[in-house]
Amino acid sequence: MARAESGPVSALPDKGGTAPWDYWQSNEGSGVLRVASAAILSANPYNTQPWLFRLNANRLEIIANKTRNLANLDPYRREFYMGLGCALENTCVAAPSQGLAAKVSLLPNGPDADTAAVVEFEPTVAAPHRHHNAISLRHTHRGPYQLDRQVESDVVDALSAQATNPDVKLLLIDARGSEGKNFSGLVMESSQRILSVPGLRDGRHIGITINAPSGTDTNDQALEKADAAWVEMTRTVACGTAAAFGLIMVRGPRTDHRLHMEAGRLWQRTHLEATLRGLAMQPMNHHIEVIDYETSTESKSSVAARLNLGTNWTGWEPIFGFRAGYAGGTAPASGRRPLSAVVIA
Burial level of 217, CB count in 10 A (0-12/13-18/19+)? Predict the structure, then answer.
């Protein structure tokens, strides 16, 4: 049995880009350091990586880095806190291999404090989590999916089973049915809306520029070109080749950071399970971002009213969208900041 000890964690890896993926896959590091090296490989909005961490040998704190948000594109900080929830899920997946049992406290100092979650570790028999090996293989796949292959019913059941919190659920929709066509139509409408509303467009551009590689051109002309390509790729690839669409729903107000984090945990868990089953996934939040904008400025959303999936939504809110399918190749890894840049005293 492993022994949890107090005290600082040293020797933080200082290489970014794709190096953090290589570090995890090489089995380097141990204890909480190893766990934190998994946390930074989590899904997050526009690769903003909105996290900071405090570490010692029996505790990990996930801190909200509020400078890395998408402004008016994410008025409720829904995507922001979902990204922190994704990091929390990877933390809990990585811990068992290190002989650490994770006890989670969400928002222990209240919803407005910087501490998003505290994970206390207790010693246990080391045994890898089912999703452990998927951590280094999970990537967002933005390319085309196979048009002649649907998502099998047993895979749908396995993904749906990842929803374990009574206030969070997962809906999967056949992309070629009427509900799927409604979903993709609202995504396309919302894409144009994002580009036509300055506050929404500016938030999208924050997402493009915040982690742009050194030397990347992000002037107005380059961003306009990127916007046009984004709309075209959304139409022809994201909507045009999806086998299924999905929604994560929460029971409660869409402003609740606790629900955001639980939804993030579900998204990470679902994507890890999908990875093990050879299924590709990509977030598609265009219409959810417009719902946030409309409800924050007008108190109601025309997009939400038309996102009709034949389901009784009383008390439930749609807060995350995605597509799924089988892809012909692997997706590239997104760059990450090194642990040395995100661990604070």
Answer: exposed
Sign of CA dihedral 64, 195, 322, 141: negative
Please report the pLDDT score of residue 6 as a whole number. Answer: 43
> In the predicted model, is pLDDT for residue 4 greater than 60?
no
Q: 280 - beta bridge partners? A: 325
* Rounded mean pLDDT, 86-94: 98
Q: Give residue-wise pLDDT tens across range 250-262.
A: 999 999 999 999 9
Contact 266, 283 (CB under 8 A): no
Instruction: List C-alpha distances in Å: 127 to 31, 93, 130, 232, 278.
Output: 13, 11, 9, 45, 23
Mean pLDDT of 13-33: 96
Tokens of 40: 């930074």
Q: Where are the alpha helices (DSSP H) in the chain?
A: 19-25, 31-39, 78-94, 153-160, 178-196, 198-209, 220-233, 257-276, 286-298, 302-306, 339-342
- CB-CB neighbours of 299 under 10 Å: 7
Give the C-alpha separation, 105 to 296, whole Å: 28
Give how far the C-alpha of residue 210 lies from the chain's centroid of Cα atoms, to the nearest Å.
17
Please give the model's pTM, rounded to 2 decimal places: 0.95
Alpha helices in 97-174 (DSSP H): 153-160
Instruction: List the strands of the sheet with 115-123, edge to edge.
Output: 51-56, 59-64, 115-123, 100-106
State the virtual CA torsion across 27, 32, 37, 38 in degrees, nearest 10.
90
The crossing angle, in degrees rounded to 10, of helices 220-233 and 178-196 is 170
Helix (H) or strand (E) holding 319, with range, is strand 316-325
Structure tokens at 172: 């999967």
